[in-house]
Design a protein that fits this description.
By secondary structure, the protein is α+β, with helices and mostly antiparallel strands. The protein is 17% helix and 28% strand. The chain is built from 6 helices and 14 strands. Strands 4, 5, 6, 7, 8, 9, 10, 11, 12, 13 and 14 form an 11-stranded mixed β-sheet that branches. It is elongated and about 75 Å long.
Length: 319
Amino acid sequence: MKSIVVNSNDAGQRLDKFLQKHFEGLPKSLMFKQIRKKNIKVNKKRCEAQTVLNVGDVVDLYLPDDVLVEKKVHYDFLSAPKSIRIIYEDENIILLDKRQGELCHPDGDEYVNTLVSSLKRYLYEKKEYSPENENSFTPSLANRIDRNTGGIVIAAKNYQSLKILNQKIKDREIDKYYLTVVHGVPEKKSDVLTGYLTKNNQKNMVTVSKKEVDGGKYIKTQYTVLDSYNDMSLVEIKLLTGRTHQIRAHLASIGHPLLNDGKYGRTHGRFKQELYSYKLKFNFTTDAGILEYLNGREFTSQYCEILKKFKNREYGNEK
């Protein structure tokens, strides 16, 4: 028999989701069966798999020890780089500036040297994150950007904030702006582009079509030309939909690929495209709960070099 007290970062979850995160040796079929047989209870009362847990609830499991093996907490994040660039931080969220070339999350080749690992290390060393005191939650990134794109990434310090941020991102209640340098000068100084994006998973590339195609996802991209010189333009992008490689592929499809884009640009290879997620605005149209204080606030990265380099006419003069 084992008892677990639900903490604030586990509250708001369904019982079945909570148990699956907490116990690595508990099969789903056995879990559902034991809930029906009342061998798993909440506050010593019969419960359902979909029962939503609250802070202070006590989950009792009258099950053999071999299926109550708790997931081990790994501290690999302590080997992650210590330096992270912080744009804003409070008790619920932290806005990070991701460097170009840095991964947001682990991939098949890199596990530790990632933004999320550095975030965990930072909060652990600040004593704001203690893995041994958490049943299932870990500090998490609410959005991600491509490896070779730099800029603002939103991270949640607690489960309630993560849940709210996920909803706001899904419902387009957080406006995200990018700066980029493109080849050529678009005919229209400002426009809203629409189309349909199809992804090739094997090549990790996308194609854009003006007309609807099978498997294509609708995309919408707003751009404004801020400055131009030497057949290059500084462009601000507002994402109206968020798809894989949307900005890069959409601008390339109208004849204005990003500078140094090795996939969709004029020179192929491994480059860091001139693209930066430099500004975001919280534009809530529905209740934001504990994050309501962020509504209307705008944050701009102080680390974006694209604007400075373009104003100084440095593009095209690299040695």
